[in-house]
Amino acid sequence: MKNHFVLFDLDGTITDSSEGIVNSILYALRKMGKEEEDINRLTSYVGPSLKDTFQNNYFPGEEECKKAIAFYREYYATKGIFENKLYAGILDVLKTIKDSGGVVALATAKPTYFAKIILKHFGIDFYFDSIVGSHLRGTRTHKNEIIFEVLDQLGFPKSNDIYMIGDREYDVMGGKKHQLKTIGVSYGYGTEGELLRANPDFLVQSPSKILECF
Question: Among residues 204, 149, 140, which one has the least CA distance to residue 172?
Answer without folding.
Answer: 204
